[in-house]
Amino acid sequence: MKSPRKSLTEGPILKALTMLALPIIGVNLLQTGYQLVDAFWVGRLGANAVAAVSISFPINFLLISISSGFAFAGAILVAQYAGAKNFKMVNHVARQTLLMAFLISLVVSIIAYIFSPQILYAIGVEEIIFDDANLFQRTIFIGLIFNFGFIMFQSLLRGIGEVKIPLYINGATLLLNFFLDPLFIYGWGPIEAYGVTGAAVSTLVTQFISIALGMYILFKGTTEIKLSIKAFSFDWPLLNKAFKLGFPSSIEISARALGLTIMTVLVARFGTEVLAAYGVGSRLISFVVILSLGLSKACTTLVGQNMGAQRIDRAEKTSYYSSVIGFISLSVVGLIFFIFAEPLTRAFLAGDDNVVGMGVDFLKITSLSFGFMGLQMSIIGTLRGSGNTVSSMVLTIIGIWVIQFPVAWYLSSHTSLGYDGLWWSFPISNVIPALITLGWYKTGRWKKKNLVHSNAEG
Q1: Where are the transmembrane segments (predicted)?
Q2: In-domain check, residue 337
């Protein structure tokens, strides 16, 4: 068995956090790039096309979230076993979580494809964009198993501290996607123009390539993880442990994604123009969310390995550094978004000044609270890394369902703000939940949980 390339349980903490965070953020930026590239090319088709694509984004996010909590379970267990120097269990956890993940994502993909029209009817999609939205969404649903498989691949590698390989794969497939998008959207030569659906076809192709490369790397043993077909059998006690660890994360991420879906329903009440503005604005904000998630995932890995090594002091210092970096860096990004809100919006929505104005308002109202998002996500990363996924879940649900959704509904429906009330719910739900999360973290209860021991058998 190979030994880790670099130790995350000794040496300068800030350096270790940075070495993890930068490639993870790079990966997340590239993944966001898929959505931005789609929005860039589809935006040339007009506001209706943008709305048709935008409507599927939170739904797709929700469905991936149902399964992706188990990817967090895999990453957390792998990180803690790696910190405890138990690499036989690292491989065993990788096999079990991959097996479980593929089965779950397959079931979700089939069900989502069948009920795609009913989903769109339920959220009130207008007839003018219904057919395009349904065809685009169904094509995306076909790729759920590829998408989630690659998410699991990245999570397992992140658990052992290998973050560069996913960066290279994402970079290559994003570049390919940039050229495939116009090819399938507008057609060329013998290739038919698929319109809006062409963006989904392009994404489907690149997702398949990504997971194929990921599985090749895992089975070849390029990293500290090496899989074998013969070793794939169900370990029910470990699966039960992974389920208990991953299920709260699934609920947490699903609650976040479902909140986005409910927000889309609220936005859709104000018509296609507001929906298009929300689609562009939410995609730009998702860029910031991805930044905070990247830092959060780096924090999870570093905290997890140090908890597994019984280095609670290093885990706590990691959390502190991550929180400070998250707050300051995302505050700077928010200021940039505030200043350049109009050109950023126009880059992804051509020709309609009214819709652009709505999108600019959305960005300006939301952007100055980004730092609080970075603070909260860093602490959430600490909780996950230490195995406190239930606490992470509860804090997330409070932020979305107790604060954001009720505020958005009340301000948009019962005040003169109208759809601007939806925009104001975002900064409110960034600041208040961050302060609540910080207060819980300060109690120190998260330090008492450890999933493995340095002398764990296996």
Answers
A1: 12-30, 50-78, 98-115, 135-153, 165-188, 194-219, 257-278, 284-303, 324-342, 362-383, 390-411, 423-441
A2: yes
Q: How far is CA 133 from CA 53, 56, 197, in A?
A: 6, 7, 8
Give burial (CB, 10 Å; 0-12/13-18/19+) of 15. Answer: exposed
- Domain residues for the domain of 278 are 13-448
Q: With 0-12 CB in 10 A as exposed, 13-18 as middle and 19+ as buried, what is 5?
A: exposed
Other CB atoms within a 10 A radius of the CB of residue 339 amount to 12
Residue 5 domain flag:
no
Alpha-carbon distance values, 327 to 216, 220, 437 (Å): 38, 40, 14
| Residue 161, pLDDT above cutoff 80 | yes
- Taking residues 34-47, what's their average pLDDT? 80
Instruction: Summarize pLDDT for 192-251 with one digit per residue, the tens.
Output: 888 888 988 998 999 999 999 999 999 998 998 988 887 778 888 888 888 888 889 888
In a domain, 93, yes or no: yes
Least confident of 47-51, 95-99, 333-337: 47-51
In a 13 Å sphere around the CA of 279, the CA atoms on its Cβ side amount to 30
Which helix (H) or strand (E) covers residue 75, if one does?
helix 56-83
Give a yes or no: residue 19 inside a domain.
yes
Q: What is the CA radius of gyration of the chain?
A: 21
Residues 192, 138: Cα–Cα separation, whole Å: 18
How many structural domains does the chain have? 1
